[in-house]
Amino acid sequence: MSAVLPKKPAKNWPLILGAGGFLLLMTIWSGTGIGFSLSELVCNIASGSRLLQESWPPDFGFLPRLVGPFMETVNIAIIGTVVGGMLSIPIAVLAARNLTTGKIVWFADRNFMNILRTLPDLFWAMLFATAVGFGPVAGALALSVFTVAVISKLWSESLESIDMGLPEAVRAVGGSWLEMIRYGAIPQALQTYVSYALYAFELNVRASMVLGLVGAGGIGMILESQRANFEYERVTMIILFVLVAVLIIEQFSSYIRNKLA
Amino acid sequence: MSALKPQREIGWATWASVIIAALFVWSLMAIQFAPADMIQVPGQVARVLSFFYPADMAYGWDKVLPAIVESIQIAWVGTLVAAVLSLPLALFGASTLFPKLAHGVKFISATTRAFPEILLAIYFVPIVGLGPFAGALAIGISSVGMLTKLGAEVIESIDFGPIEAVEASGGSRIAALRYAVLPQVLPEIVAHWLFRFELNIRASAVLGVVGAGGVGGVLLNTLRYRHFDKAAAVLVLTIIVVLAIDMISGEIRRKIINS
Amino acid sequence: MNTAKGAIAFQQTNVVYPNGVVGMKDLNLNIEPGEFVVIVGSSGAGKSTLLRAINGLNRVTSGTVSVNGTPVPQKEGRELRELRKHVGMIFQDFRLVKRLSVMSNVLIGRLAHVAGWRTLLNLWPEHDRAIAMRALERVGITEKAWTKASQLSGGQQQRVGIARALAQEPAIILADEPVASLDPVTTHQIMRDLVTINQELGITTLVNLHFLDLAREYGKRIIGLKDGELVYDGSAKTVTESDFKDIYGREFTDDDLLNEDAKL
Lengths: 261, 259, 264
What we know:
Chain A is built from 11 helices and no strands.
């Protein structure tokens, strides 16, 4: 037992206690703030089971009335993806450090992008529904903005990792900035762009299902009216339908994405 | 997409563009987007936006901030519930550790991921009543799927050497999980929890639309009654709070991963 | 330090892998407590199979392996864990938990000796911490006790691996190519450590080696394997060049020697 064990480095107790205390307080504060109670949950299982009984079986007779609104949902998602996808190209290019035209442009664009990302899809839907009136046009506009938020951030990161040899070569032979982007930069990141656009489309299909809750068109508008009337067997039908449709579209989209990868 | 076949690639890209353009035009026609709207819409948006200034910040501090706080609380509890539930599920979902169970666990997690949280909230509101508790449950359940999937992927990517080392020294399966698996995966998994918390702040912000608490209901009401100055306060405060939480959480995530 | 005796016996033991590869063929072998045995053979000759059969990491297809007269259990469970508790293992790739401290890695060797709830909560008894510290002291890296394993050099990591095995207070140490990932200088240090531990603690030690000159320098008894069969068993002092040729089934090359100038 002659070993001289170096002293165990003292733990950073202020940090550990501070972090632990913060987590605990945050949890207690949040839990009481939202009225989290297991007893309430257990007590309400009874009313919950009544609701579940009402919502099952789904009202299959309602199915034919869903096809039209569902197509509208898909249309909204397509328009949102195409418009947002195109708008996000310049926004992503200007936010890529290696391609942007100047420090101020880069800084402004980067912050613009980050602010777009802070607001959830339904906030945009509410804003556009107020501005242009209830209906699918508001939904398409909302998803366009949402798509820009999704694609531009991801794609600007891909653009930052491209090989700068080709763009510099375009510049060296006298190409303009636009030509450099068009022929030197974009071809290298085209594949990731397509992949992100498909990913955005998947998110848009999912988002477009609920846009109608705030009056922005699509199948969510029926969902909202049935929910408000407590027609839960119809709500279940809509949600099942949406679930299956989303899964199919996602499978299709991820199949294409995998083929591209 | 081979570089050796440029001819074929051009053909592929052209076809894709034509199909997308056709779908786009069809969609515009289907939602009855008239070319005249092209001119009108930007004007309408600009006109409404002009009503947003100046923001009614008195209303913001009074009514909006408490609602944002409630959204944060919903996201916190929801993420915590999901983290606790997903940790064991992620273990069982790792195909390298539990080849037989993993398939089922992954299937369940994929199904729950397909539900937007707001649809779950539609069911939880009548069960536990209007308010943030329903929102937290919806956020929690809908986050379990993604956290399970990401956690399982982290666990599948670990170095298996230490597990065998623990077993070779006579340690039990549980000891191997505690000493060989957990130290390898915990930082990444906690980083995923934080990232999910950031996403859940945004998700909880909209739950108010179906009466499940948070700031979404406030925005819906201010817009419905066309109190644009009050809506502006909602937007400004939401943006600031979400940006701040993103920055703090992102910084902590970087620290955890690099430690 | 330990009272357990580390006798090993193979009787007509065969290992056939699920893919049909024969890992061990009709092996009969007795190893006395306290022996230092070096196992040589080309890759795929069954060196690892032999070691891993002793602590049950590989199952035998027929015949028996026994440790101190008790057959090695052929299924996971309490009995196999009880056996492994007294058999330390050292790996070519160290197999440390890189994010944990050196001390925590060595304490892994005590897992089987300490109550489960204590290990789960990381509440190690003082007695076991002292054992882990002595193990670190023996391989001479006490000053690294609180360093993260990932920050150590290869040679230091292997020392932690040895300390982890020693912390088990084992009757037997199985070292599977312990120096294959190390540079020549570190290789000799690690081999000397293993020999010293064997001599001072009387732990039965089996070392798989690829390099012939190392085998001859450090081995007392050399076992040669070829295609899963025992083809040589004798003293390291009397082993000849032609014995090695028989074991390898070919002329050997510089790749088979650690020091290329060495003469066998």
